[in-house]
User: Fold these one by one.
Assistant:
Number 1:
Amino acid sequence: MNVRKEFARAVTAMVAFVVALGLLYPLVITGIGQLAFRDNANGQRIYVHGRLVGSKLIGQSFASPVERNGRPEMSGGAPVTRPDPRYFQTRPSGTSPADNAAATSFANYGPNSIVTERVIAANIAAYIALNGRYYPGGLTAAKVPVDAADTSASGIDPDISVANARIQAHRVAAVRHLSLATVNALIARYTSGRGLGFSGEPGVDVLELNLALDRLTGRN
């Protein structure tokens, strides 16, 4: 056996595979993605007047800073925020900080876990505190949709259920001085159907819905 010849063949094969699978294949797949699925391949980013405002794939917070004595209140080195009542809110996030696309995760606690119970209870209480005063007849825990009480598997889902949006519509309409019918019409416009026509439930795109509200009221 010619050791040098075998070694040369091994090196040649390794280089060929590196070039084919490490360079050419990714370039081809990237090219196909950019040509055939450009929006998806680039993260379905949304721009307003040339400014990046978010992605259809990643939830984001619509909150305002809490101020005390004219200065932002801080906690753990980060500003304290609260949900902005003018906007629809996404479902609770399971990442830290919230809606962190670099750390998608879910809580590895069972349904009988005390931690799970406390987190869900806190989410329900926050949801009622934000929306209860605007909801006809009052809002109880039994009426809070699941997606308003618990996080998604990724922790950063951008959509909410139609039921969730319909409850929040009362608050948004009241705060923005719009008719409930107008807000519900926008919800219908930004509601997507089931995946492939049968999978999952319809979802409401919160980011685009909020952007549409701002356009309607002259905020952008």
Number 2:
Amino acid sequence: MSFFNSRRWALLLLLITPALWSVNYLVGRSAPGTVAPHMLALLRWSLAAVILAVFAWPELLVKRRLLLHNAWHYFVFGALGMWICGAWVYIGARSTGATNIALIYALAPVFIALVSTFWLRERLGTVQWLGSALAFLGLVHVVIKGQWAALAQVRLVAGDLWILGATVSWTLYSIFLQRWPSDFSPVARLVLIISAGVLLLVPLTFVEAMSGLPMTQTVWNYKTVVLVIAAGVVPGAGAYLAYTVLQKSLGAARAGLTLYLGPVYAAVTAYLVLGEPIEGYHLLGAAVILPGIYLASLAKKS
């Protein structure tokens, strides 16, 4: 068994992937007033495509006759993963709070597990479902800061619809990634998916820039460059590649568990970069999420 397909590597990626994605929390919070949502998504994925293409180019060159085979798959992935899960999240974050975003995104692993069970036939046993439930509870504990009565105070706003759309989109992206086979390695496949996403984002970014609406203009300065590089390298090329490899090893349902660690890693990132304190509810949530993910990732006994 190769290193990338080994279970030990897959379990390690369960911890690494959400850490890479957590950088997008900082980017999303810093982008308003500096870079427009579609522009940020376009530049992020353009950079990610260039980075990954350096490694995938030899394979793409050898298999160039297969590039158009099932090419429409790449555009579906590009719309789901690069446009909706990119620009829509940045749009929604401007009118809804972090609590709502995290709670809505917490539904994604649940959606993925359910669809995987009934469509992909990825049967989860009692232990795996128990682990998923523990991870979900741990995430909610972090999101509501340990104050369970605060759930009754959560109110939905317009931005939540953008986030819900992105959550459903990520579910479909994850399922199709498992459902549709590919002639290419994970790296080469991701380059093709991102390239299709970039092609879709170009006209949408142009329309955004020409709309003249508030918060749709980009200020070109050093901060813009830093945000684009951070988004393109870490939660772009790094996180998506890690997720693709992880899903190939563990399946869609277990790979979706990475989202449960997002708020915990975001808290650590905010502490290191922004100096925001780590509270007791972060630690308690992590203490519940980590064993939950471990149980959910165990191989089901036949």
Number 3:
Amino acid sequence: MNLNLPNRISKPRKFGINVLIDNGYPLNFFKDVIESFTEEIDFVKFGWGTSVITKNLQQKIDILIHHNISYFFGGTLFEKYLQQDSLSKYKKLLNKYNCEYMEISNGTIDIDNTSKASYIKDFSKDFKVFSEVGLKDSIKSEEMSPKKWIKYIQEDLDAGALKVITEARESGTSGICRSSGELRIGLIEEILESNLKIEDIIFEAPNKKLQPHFIKRLGTNCNLANISFSDIIALETLRLGLRSDTFSTFET
């Protein structure tokens, strides 16, 4: 089409990744999206504990494997197994589904980040671990200072996390967002101005209020997660400056 567009890193990529969230989509819709947009999808997360009650989970995983798309279960499922003192059973579940990746979080249960980091260190012996920083409770989350966010992100990376995901929930109302849905820009700026490497961080950005901010601030190839299956092409147009929200961001 002879358009001068930003350089989008091609797959397989370690930066500029899209993490879609499956919150229980029907199998045929899931298959259609994966087959239609394979090149735009890096990971699929089976949200929170949906993998436990998804009857066609293995079929979905088979589709992802066929299209060379990686997958992992939501961190809340890890927390549920931890709460019930059943992490050995959780490892068996991960092995049953040939999970190369997994997520560890402490957004729901009350464990300190140092304890979470110890689990990261343990699980990273057998899996590639994504950790998540931030709380599900929006009130408690807003009380967590930027200094703590930075400390916890670094602690998780030091423990062996492949990348750290910043919490926003699928609704965009906690973690790096206020309960109103407003992005905590001051928090984001302090994270970006720290010594952390931006490629080590995945920002949850489940809606069009959040996605343009990160793309305009960090560029085309920022890491974004909690992307709806119905939004993947819309997100790619944002990344390439083909939508009004980022139209003037990438001038040539």
